[in-house]
Amino acid sequence: MALTVETGAGVSGADAYASTTTVDTYWSNRPQNALSATWAAGATANKEGAIREASAYLDAVFGPHYRGVARGTLQGLLFPRSDALDDAGFPLPDLPQQLVDAVCELAARALSNPLADDDDRGNQIVRIKEKVDVIETDTQYAEGAQKHKSYGFVAGMLAPILDGTQPNAPTPAWNWT
Questions:
Q1: pLDDT, one tens digit for every residue, the chain (177 residues)
Q2: Number of domains present in the structure of the chain
Q3: Which residue range forms the structural domain that includes residue 133?
Q4: Is 92 part of a structural domain of the chain?
Q5: Do residues 117 and 149 make contact, with C-beta atoms less than 8 angstroms apart?
Q6: 111 in the same domain as 56
Q7: What are the DSSP calls for 91-154, one per residue?
Q8: Is the alpha carbon torsion for 50, 6, 160, 73 positive or negative?
Q9: Fewest CB atoms within 10 A around its CB: which of 27, 77, 87, 111?
Q10: Does 38 share its domain with 80?
Q11: Which residues of 54-81 are buried (b: 16+ CB within 10 A; e: fewer)?
């Protein structure tokens, strides 16, 4: 099934922030990155699925922290937004390039691995036991510890369109408190 790509107009039923052509171009411009080869080798149907997964992931994880509010309930994704202003008070584009680029980054990763795991325990490690003579590792996590993949580069890309309330949001360098 073909992608329904958001254009910034609030497309009803949109399931992607980028087309396969857009992601193809993004990765062909980065041939030094191993993900470029991963993306190029993907079948069209798999690429479309990865783009859908990346778009859904961004809305699920970062959507509550997008600036502004969704324009309506008919649009398929959380962008475009109303009242979405940058730090200088200027309106954000209806489809920010940061969001498109983030989809490109995550789509290549989604071709070979899920972007989010069902078994979430996090880095709340209680104990790590290692035996040097036989190299045995025993890692125990705190009860209820959450595990999630972190895409720091993507979070950094999205920072200009996020409201700063997301977990691990960067603190401005000038804030000395």
A1: 799 999 999 999 999 999 999 999 999 999 999 999 999 999 999 999 999 999 999 999 999 999 999 998 899 999 999 999 998 899 999 999 999 999 999 999 999 899 987 654 555 655 555 554 544 555 555 665 545 566 778 888 998 999 988 877 765 554 444
A2: 2
A3: 119-148
A4: yes
A5: yes
A6: yes
A7: BPPSS-HHHHHHHHHHHHHHTTS-SS-SS--TT-EEEEEEETTTTEEEEEEPTT-------HHH
A8: negative
A9: 87
A10: yes
A11: bbbbbbebbeebbbbebbeeebbbbbbb
28 and 90 share one domain:
yes
Q: Is the peptide bond before 80 cis (omega within 30 degrees of 0)?
A: yes
Residue 24 sits in the same domain as residue 73: yes
* One domain, residues 141 and 155: no
Euclidean distance between CA atoms 71 and 131, whole angstroms: 57
| Same domain assignment for residues 105 and 125 | no
Under 8 Å between Cβ of 57 and 113: no
